Amino acid sequence: MTREYKSNTKKDQNNSEVLIVVTWLVSKHTRKNKRNKLKKGIDRSIIIRTLIIKLPIHSNSIMWNMSESRHVSRKYHFTESQAKEILKDILPKTATLSDTENINHLKVDSNAEPPFVCKLDNSNQAKIRFLTLFFGENDASFPENKQSVPLEEYKANLSEMIQMVTDPKSKYYSKYTKIILITPPVVCDIMWEKRLKEFGVNTQNRSNTCAKIYSDAATQVGKNHNVAVVNLWEAFNNRIQQLFDTDIDTSLNEDIVGYSLDKSSPTFGFDQLLSGGLHPNKAGNDLIIKEVMAAIEKNYPELCPENISFTIPICKNILQTLDVVNLWEAFNNRIQQLFDTDIDTSLKEEIVGYSLDKSSPTFGFDQLLSDRLHPNKAGNDLIIKEVMAAIEKNYPELCPENIFFTIPICKNILQTLDGTKKK
User: How many Cα atoms are found within 13 Å in the side-chain-facing hemisphere of 85?
Assistant: First the structure.
């Protein structure tokens, strides 16, 4: 699901049906010379990582893969100051009338029979259903840290990114786009200090207090612009409080579960939601998704999964209207027939090429499959038989005996000719 969204918007910037787009920055190192071999020099480049969530969401958890973030270039600090500029390349520009005319050939006949009706909206507005702005974790670092962004600048950057989409005068304006502003979550000072020391850094550069200040600032920006806000700092703290209020299962072992079970520990609760005291782990990301979905339900109920119609029918609905040849069932029925049939004792396995022992786990399979995977001649004969049976049952007018030949078949031509038949 991760793609460079900039290239995608060029291909389909007018009819994008993306509902949620989450972006982050990744610095990647390449060490190649002209022959694509490793060399000492490092070419640093910035990569836009995008998570596209298209509702309805059928999974309860979405993990963001930040594995490449370990290749960190000092030139890039992964803050919303950079994102503000890169967002201009991510957002689709409002289409012109000529752009709209160029895609008119994609229209589908409104009288077409379902489920193959494709509802394409050819309006001249670039469309992204949801845009989440999730920044502040790095911005909230201490001033001496290169990733730090002053609080007022942080607020101004968020406002500018929101106005890119909401201001009618902006070339990125889209009245269809709903914005969800996500604040930075909590920081566990002790866990993060320990993680820094593992990397040889002895100076603390973040705190939970600073994270709250930036979280409150982001919340205020969202209110000022009347956009939905997911306050992760508050949500994470509420979850930690719930853990404090819940009795601990005494059968658990810290070494097995991987987090503290001692409520007097300063890391209790934090280590169930954070990795290293800063980045959300699986449970933390589960909580983020839960909060985002709750914000959608509260602020944009018309865009909840259950209230959204599909632009293109989902597969299972199409299959319900079609006749399906179930080869798995057909092959298993044939194998069962072989089990129920007496074996000709005059046959020899070396000659026929398949097992004659019904206790063998390959019995029946090796009569229909080649290398236990691909159908052999007998398997393909069964496939043809099942397909022809489906045609006869569902489309009898297309059975061979009911079809008129456009050109007479050879034997009929020969019967009408005088003289010697030619090969």
Answer: 6
The pLDDT tens digits of the residues spanning 24-59 come to 444 444 444 444 444 444 334 444 444 444 333 333
Rounded to whole angstroms, the Cα distance separating 109 from 106 reads 10
Tens digits of residue pLDDT in 57-102: 333 333 333 333 333 333 445 677 777 777 777 777 775 444 444 4
149 and 113 within one domain: yes
Q: CA 246, CA 202: separation in Å to the nearest integer?
A: 35
User: Same structural domain for residues 22 and 156?
Assistant: yes
The beta-strand segments (E) located in 96-142 are: 130-134
Asked whether residue 423 is domain-assigned, the answer is: no
Does 225 reside within a domain?
yes
**In this structure, what are the phi and psi dihedrals at residue 358, rounded to the nearest 5 degrees?**
-65, -15
Compute the chain's Rg from CA coordinates.
Answer: 31
3-class secondary structure, 3: strand
User: How does DSSP classify residue 268?
Assistant: T
Give residue for tokens 């990569």: 47
Residue among 150, 164, 160, 168 nearest 221 (CA): 160
Q: Position of tokens 């691909």?
A: 374
Measure the CA–CA gap between 260 and 26, rounded to whole angstroms. 31
The Cα–Cα gap between 211 and 139 comes to 9
* Owning domain of residue 263: 2-318
